[in-house]
Amino acid sequence: MEIFAILVCIFLFLSTLVISFPFIKKNKPTSKPKLPPGSMGWPYIGQTLQLYSQHPNIFFASKQKRYGEIFKTHILGCPCVMLASPEAARFVLVTHSHLFKPTYPKSKEKLIGSSALFFHQGDYHTRIRKLVQTSLSPESIKKLIPDIETQVISSLESWVSVRHVINAFCEMKKFSFNIGILSVFGNLENNYREQLKENYSIVEKGYNSFPTRIPGTAYSKALLARKRIHEIISEIICKKREQKLIEKVLLSHLLNYKDEKEEMLTDEEIADNVIGVLFAAQDTTASVLTWILKYLHDDQKLLEAVKAEQMSIYEANERGKIPLSWNQTRNMPITHRVILESLRMSSIISFTFREAVVDVVYKGYLIPKGWKVMPLFRNIHHNPEFYVNPQSFDPSRFEVSPKPYTFMPFGNGVHSCPGNELAKLNMLILIHHLVTKFRWEVEGYESGVEYSPFPIPMHGLPTRFLRD
Ligand code: HEM
Ligand SMILES: *[C@@H]1O[C@H](CO)[C@@H](O)[C@H](O)[C@H]1NC(C)=O
Ligand SMILES: *[C@@H]1O[C@H](CO)[C@@H](O)[C@H](O)[C@H]1NC(C)=O
């Protein structure tokens, strides 16, 4: 009986294959993957204006509600596919990352330098990334703690000494730039640091302005400043080569690198990557620090808890006479959760861009070659399926680890942020000194978000710092 049934099954199965084969073939055009749903907006301007004129949560959430986890749209003149689920982010950034390359506007690539690692894919990227990762690994950044503390204390002292209200974001930027310099160059002579800072701020102003070479425009000034930065870095490289520097910072890793053919990196490649890292480190860290100031200011009970945690470390260190140890920075659970929750809430890198290098099919949808692909970190971080009551600031939710691919403030996969440990370390150290010795008041408080280009609190959070 059984044998008979099986034979019948096999026969039926084979006959369906035979019968349906030409049938399938004929029908192939209809089973061709289709484009994802969504509206493309007006040509060129597309939905860019909507993206930048609304609160970031609203733009993406309304799209996702309408179309689901994958939809198409137009951003800055490019057709693109937005992806709003953890699986889709994993597909693009991790499991199928070779099908998607990083993509930036040429005008921006020129300002940072085309050899900077985040524009690349493949061998060159892997080589440079290894150097950057080594110089930013826990082993390396441990040694930076005393210098970071010195920088933190000097920044805090300067904010108190002005006595009036300051733009917290601007100040956090200066702080983050100095830490960036520290992690790239180690201790750098003051005059170089000042020259880099001045010229860098000109580059920044051009970065988000209209790209034209007409003299006098922000963009053309930025290109000139970029050239001067290159000259400054070349001079530093020259000096450091003579000194045979021993400091294990990014610059020395870049200078000492030799590939299998004993070839070294060119000065151009070194300079582009130095500028790239400074660029990646500054506004990101500063934006998150500004949000942390706001969130802690808005929740005094939470601030008290953070303060209690930091005070016990401060007392153990004889009220700041003994410097912070690496171990202590690893044992600040409440403060650490405040940082994680601030990263989730603010999601300052709301999404990233890739470009499909071939036609790709994801869950039956076609992503045509050349189209941009945007994994939407913010949507994932604000999805009630993964974060209960996502709009409320609640660090205790991080008492349990988030599910895989639902927490990506530092991206994921081959291009994920190599500076994430350093960024967190900076924040921990700044919070430690801030809450143990100072307090702050937010003045003329206005809720709302502005773009710097990352989302930051309105007006950069006007704040007055006071000694406690
Ligand atoms: C809170 C602060 C920071 C945030 C939220 C952040 C976020 C990110 C994200 C999301 C990416 C991946 C972008 C993508 O996949 O397209 C990234 C890449 C990168 N970040 Fe960060 N970052 C921060 C701080 C830093 C710092 C302090 C450094 C260096 C000192 C740094 C250096 C880099 C570099 C070099 C890349 C490019 C990596 C590659 O392409 O392989 N970042 N960052
Ligand atoms: C920029 O760098 C140059 C050195 O290349 C330096 O002379 C100048 O003072 C710096 N600052 C500005 C604003 O140009
Ligand atoms: C690190 O900190 C933990 C908790 O504060 C402590 O139990 C441990 O002994 C410390 N380890 C070192 C090596 O200091």
UniProtKB/TrEMBL annotation:
It holds the Pfam family p450. GO terms for cellular component: membrane. Keywords: Heme, Iron, Membrane, Metal-binding, Monooxygenase, Oxidoreductase, Signal, Transmembrane, Transmembrane helix. Residues 1-20 form the signal peptide. It is found in: Membrane. The keyword Oxidoreductase applies. Its cofactor is heme. One of its GO terms (biological process) is sterol metabolic process. InterPro entries: Cyt_P450, Cyt_P450_CS, Cyt_P450_E_grp-I, Cyt_P450_sf. It is an enzyme of class 1 (oxidoreductase). It catalyses: 2-cis-(+)-abscisate + reduced [NADPH--hemoprotein reductase] + O2 = (+)-8'-hydroxyabscisate + oxidized [NADPH--hemoprotein reductase] + H2O + H(+). Pathway: Plant hormone degradation; abscisic acid degradation. It is a single-pass membrane protein. GO terms for molecular function: (+)-abscisic acid 8'-hydroxylase activity; heme binding; iron ion binding. Heme binds at residue 417. Its EC number is 1.14.14.137. Belongs to the cytochrome P450 family. This is (+)-abscisic acid 8'-hydroxylase. It comes from Vicia faba.
